[in-house]
Design a protein that fits this description.
- This protein has five helices and two strands; from the N terminus they run ααβααβα.
- It is mainly alpha-helical.
- It has one domain: EF-hand (Recoverin, domain 1).
- The protein has a two-stranded antiparallel ribbon with strand order 1-2.
- It is globular.
Length: 83
Amino acid sequence: MNTTFTRLIAATIVALPVAAMAADYTTADANADGMLSMEELQTILPEITTDTFMAADTDGDGLLNADELAAAQADGVLPASDG
């Protein structure tokens, strides 16, 4: 089998679970402050760890703003939004 084709298949298999994990981040913002706390994020993504949240929280304030959320999604740190 062609090495490139094999790598493509492997990458697709690895990426499928992430693609299936879309989240509605807007409904998670319980206090409607426009930012997501770790607790709010875990209501829709209970598997998110503290390390993952901290990687997304680039300014270290304990909240994810719209820019941090978009960057984390673009970088694959958090799944894409479905809402």
